[in-house]
Amino acid sequence: MKKYWEIARVNTLQYLVYRLNFILWRFRNIINLIFIFFLWTNIYSTSSKVFNYDKAQVISYVLVVTLASSIVLSSRTSDIATEILSGYFINYLLKPVSFFKYILTRELVDKLINIVFTVIEISLLVMIFKPLLFIQNNISVYPVFIFSLIIGCLIGFFISLSLSFIAFWSSEVWAPRFIFFMLVQMLAGSWFPLDVLPKTIYNFMLLTPFPYLIFFPTKIYIHGLSVDLIKPIIISIIWCLILFAVTRLVWLKGIKNYGAFGR
Amino acid sequence: MKRYLKIFWLLSSYSIKTSFQHRLGVVSFLLGKIIRFTVYFFFIYFLVSRTKLLAGYNLNQTIIFFLVYNIIDSLTQMFFREVYRFRPLVVSGELDHILLKPYHPFLRILVGGIDPLDIIMLVPYLIILVFFILQAGMAILPVNFFIFLILMSNALILATFFHILVLAIGIFTTEVDHTILIYRDFARMASLPTDIYSEPLRFFITFVIPVGLMMTIPAKALFGLLTINILIISAAITVFFGWFSLSLWNNALKKYQSWGG
């Protein structure tokens, strides 16, 4: 356990080595948040309710999605592809640490740092612009919200890891990841609540793993608990299991194929 | 000048050939770009068709703003893709070899890596722009169209200075990736009319980081909404921005120590 604490400590310090890089990365998040915040604020300048969401709900949606994205989508798994291609990956296999425990430690550190800074950024935005917010008063919603966030994290982790494992066979690793990010933007509800879409499209989207990354946890926070949630929760758990199996399979096949070239 | 054009042509043809070496990458990135555009387009269409207006602009006008942004953004990325690959040159010291060559380094580090995918994407953007202009039933006066073209050129000049600024910052700090993406994030803020922002943010992104001048103002020219003052201010800001970025670049070169080599 001690060595994983040490890995966590070293990984945290790594963020502080390139401080300018770190500051600029956080600054980008603020710019994006401001953009989407003002867009929605303007949409509600003429009507009090659009797509069955009032202004407070939509602004809260934007803020919770930002927080959920920072938890679910923040990941260091993309580095693994570079490490496989460069040959650096062999170090994980030779060192007396478990590769999966190592990357899980790295993931946790990354998510923790993201959560801390996103909370600070959102708080700053709220203090400056003082938007009307929707606060979920039903305490029983929070455990379900956290559970769905964990499922979202696992789904995101497995997809991202599988994409990195493509490097075992091909150097074309960035293009599939680029498509993945585009799909996340479209199907994960990053810009708008997916349930404002026509019913057929929305129901179809719920069959894919993407809404369970950030839209679904955010929806639980905004709309609270209902029986309608049971089916999507089951689908998200099934996706989680499928993606775990796929990632495991890709790993087992890939590691046999790995030649540690580049070293 | 003729020699420079010849070198530019050579570098561009090499860049296009290199890009098409990775066929799967070409298809995937193109697909990604199409998805991104479609999603964003659909999002705006969906949103503004419900609310009818965005900051006083109707659906067709909002989409024209968005398309003009896409055209300028694509042209910029098409020409200046090489800036995204600048950091390794600085940290490895490879930049020395470029600075020693008997032509201006911008030819290599600024415009030396044309991106063919953005050339491809320009075609649908232009077609959709013309479609929406026709659908909007806009009678564009020749003078407004002429001002539009001037402002589009001004936007490209401003974008050039932005990228020179990024190169200069890259030499000072070895940080390029986030700086260029910050520029793009700011530019994206102007993909919709900057009127959606409240002051002083609107002033900031129009005149201080002049992405509003680059992306929003040309579309306003098409609608005939500009005054002569804005044109004069645009020109003045471009001149100032050019002076600032070139001074910074010259300063950066003086500080450059080829530490990586």
Automatic annotation (TrEMBL), chain A:
The keyword Hydrolase does not apply. Keywords: Membrane, Transmembrane, Transmembrane helix. InterPro entries: ABC-2_transporter-like. It comes from the Bacteria. Pfam families: ABC2_membrane_6. The keyword NADP does not apply. The chain crosses the membrane at residues 20-44, 111-129, 141-168, 174-194, 201-223, 229-251. PANTHER family: SLR1174 PROTEIN, SLR1174 PROTEIN-RELATED. This is ABC-2 type transporter.
Automatic annotation (TrEMBL), chain B:
The keyword Cytoplasm does not apply. The chain crosses the membrane at residues 24-48, 54-72, 119-140, 146-172, 225-249. It holds the Pfam family ABC2_membrane_6. InterPro entries: ABC-2_transporter-like (IPR010390). Keywords: Membrane, Transmembrane, Transmembrane helix. It comes from the Bacteria. This is Uncharacterized protein.
